Amino acid sequence: MEGRLARIGLRIWVGGVLLFLFVPIGIICFYAFNSSNVQSWPIHGLSVKWFSVAWHDPQVRAAFLLSLRAAIFATVVALLLGSAAAFGVHRFRFFGREAVSLLLVLPLSLPGIITGIALNSAFNFAGIGLSLLTIIIGHATFCIVVVYNNVLARLRRVSGSVNEAAADLGAHGLFLFRTVTLPMLSTAVISGALLAFALSFDEVIVTTFTAGAQNTLPLWVFGAIRLGQDLPEVNVVVVGVLLLTVVPVIAAARLTGGGGITRGSAAGPRISGG
Amino acid sequence: MGVRLDADHRVKGGRSVTSTMPREGRPAPDRPSPGMAGRGSARISAALWRRTWLRATLTLSPPLAWFLVIYLASLLVMLVTAFWSVNPFTNALEHTWTLANFRELFTGTYLSIIGRTIAMAAIVTVTDAVLAFPVAYYMARIATQRGRQLLFTAVLLPLWASYIARVYAWIVILQKDGTLSWFFDKIGVGPVNIGYSNVAMWLVFSYIWLPFMIAPIYAALERIPDSLLEASGDLGARNWRTVRSVLLPLALPGFAAGSIFTFSLTLGDFITPLLVGGANSNFIGNVIYANIGTANNLPFAAALAIVPIVIMICYLLGARAAGAFRSM
Predict the structure, then answer these.
(1) Mean pLDDT along residues B174-200
(2) Is A144 part of a structural domain of the chain?
(3) Is A182 on the interface with B (CB under 8 A)?
């Protein structure tokens, strides 16, 4: 229905939006190679020296290890509980099912600061000191949602008739689950876990209220930017965080044909099914 | 075999498509399944198989326990904390009921902060809707299957790419000797300095939440059958008229779904106001943050955190009226 001119206009618009989305990311990657410790543009020269400075900075290293540990544990919790939740909500009919599925997506639809303050109040009330464990609890709460969304979307897409056919052929119980259901879900589960890892590794807002005096890598970056200190190192660390979030997401997108990386919506756009 | 499948289909037709698993009334095959590890596990598995409620309980209770005991309980503690106070001398939390925190919320200072935050969230939402619609339209209606898939990934990738990295990128771009100023200087406009201002925040928020808006609008547009647009054309509507009278109303649920995210996330963000905002950039998020950190007033922070929840409940009720949840 659209004329030639409209098509050209739309192409230009799409190109502009893509530039808007990617130019800042490109610029920040470029800054990591800035040889000077002055931040102005254009950068004065190229160098990789700040990579080595950041790598050998004990604060950065400690923060990196903390982030890594938090992300791994949170991902494991999310993997188990998120898949179980998706499976249960999809398979069983029970009283309050709608309320449960609403509750499960709440941590990603409400601003992170609410989860943060709520957990902070609760830990304060229960007299639980802030530690790695509280960081993991905070992260797992929203990571569960990511795995849940991914697995639920897949469950809705694969038809129940495959399971029925397998049952007719004599497979049942755990055997059916292990040999038929799980293989159909595996890429959705894995991509959910990858996204959960990416989300956890990079999280600042909930972490601010659950970490106390500890520094995760994004918290270290946040602190350094606020104080205006160590900015050449920030340039490098930020690109590292960027890579550690983007690589898992690209892998997740490949596993699910692109449809699996919508955030916050259970039934993502049907991309490959047409 | 064929007969059995047919019978199965007839049975299935009467039930909802997804509730096919528990097959009560049909005995489980009594011979052990091939590859089954041992008799014990087979028996447990068969017992589980027959008791749907048991399987449902075993599957759902761990995640539900997590959400009830950790998430929901925490939200309740936060709600209760909002009615407590802090001893001004010892800084200790006092568990005595008071409405003082809420009374303070309704003073001029905080009402203007809340108003400013809502205004920012609204402007960001509108900006993203305007930027997103043509992109979503192109993806849904013009791009080839392959191009659509690439665009979809390209649009959603920045959403997952490190949040703090993307905010930092804009600090670098908008700073006094930054990329933007350099660019405007080169094209003859002269250096600009919009860093650390509400304009900078508007830009950064719009940038960060944009993919949240594109995805649901695309999903809504993709669902519109071509025949509707052809019919509109046949009835004499020009292109623009079709967009305005057919496409936009049908895409409304997508706009509403996207706006839930752009609006809600802007309401509660404190990183962007702290890092990109200027001296006058007090928003709900960074005031909550200040009350946890320097002021150490958890009850007031909790009271303030209830504000976005209330705003979002109102917003969600409005969005539901617009049919937003059909495309979520």
Answers:
(1) 86
(2) yes
(3) no
Q: Is B103 on the interface with A (CB under 8 A)?
A: no
Among B75, B77, B219, the residue with its CB nearest the CB of A125 is: B77
B175's tokens: 């700073």
Report, as an integer, the average pLDDT of A17-26: 96
- Whether A32 is in a domain gets the answer no
CA distance linking residue B100 with residue B88, whole number of Å: 13
Spell out the domains of chain B, with CATH numbers in brackets.
103-327 (1.10.3720.10)
Would you report the helix, strand and coil content of chain B in percent, each value rounded to 5? 75, 0, 25
Q: What mean pLDDT, rounded, does chain B reach? A: 82
Residues on chain B touching A43 (C-beta within 8 angstroms): none
Residues 16 through 75 of chain B touching chain A, CB cutoff 8 Å: 17-21, 23, 28-29, 31, 33-36, 41-42, 44-46, 48-49, 52, 55-56, 59-60, 62-64, 66-67, 70-75
- DSSP character at residue B182: H
Residue type, B81: T
Contacts of A264 (CB under 8 A, 6+ apart): A105, A108, A109, A149, B212, B261, B328
Q: Where are the alpha helices (DSSP H) in chain A?
A: 4-31, 49-56, 58-91, 97-109, 112-126, 132-157, 160-168, 173-176, 182-202, 205-210, 217-227, 231-256
Angle between helices B163-174 and B179-186 (to 10 degrees): 40
CA distance between the termini of chain A: 20
pLDDT at position B124, please? 97
Q: pLDDT value at position B5?
A: 33
Query: Does some domain include residue A43?
Result: no
- Per residue in B234-263, pLDDT (tens digit) is 888 887 888 888 888 888 888 988 998 899
Q: Specify the number of domains making up chain A.
A: 1
Looking at the predicted structure, is the pLDDT value of residue B6 above 80? no
In terms of average pLDDT, the best of A265-274, B151-160, B183-192 is B151-160
pLDDT in tens, B249-303: 888 888 988 998 899 999 999 999 999 988 778 999 999 999 987 778 899 999 9
Query: In whole angstroms, what is the distance from residue A19 CA to residue B79 CA?
Result: 43
DSSP track, B231-276: HHHHTT--HHHHIIIIIHHHHHHHHHHHHHHHHHHHHH--HHHHHH
Q: For chain A, what is the mean pLDDT?
A: 87
8 Å CB contact between B108 and B94? no
Instruction: Supply the CATH number for residue A251's domain.
Output: 1.10.3720.10
Which range scores top for mean pLDDT: A2-16, B92-106, B123-137? B123-137
Provide the pLDDT for residue A61.
Answer: 95
Instruction: Say which residue the tokens 């761990």 belong to.
Output: B62
B158 sits in which H/E element: helix B145-160
Average pLDDT over residues A207-212: 93
Residue A248, domain extent: 51-261
Interface contacts A/B by beta carbons within 8 Å: 344
Residue A205 contacts B, CB cutoff 8 Å: yes
Residue A256: name the closest of A146, A162, A145, A161 by CA: A146
Q: What is the pLDDT of residue B55?
A: 81
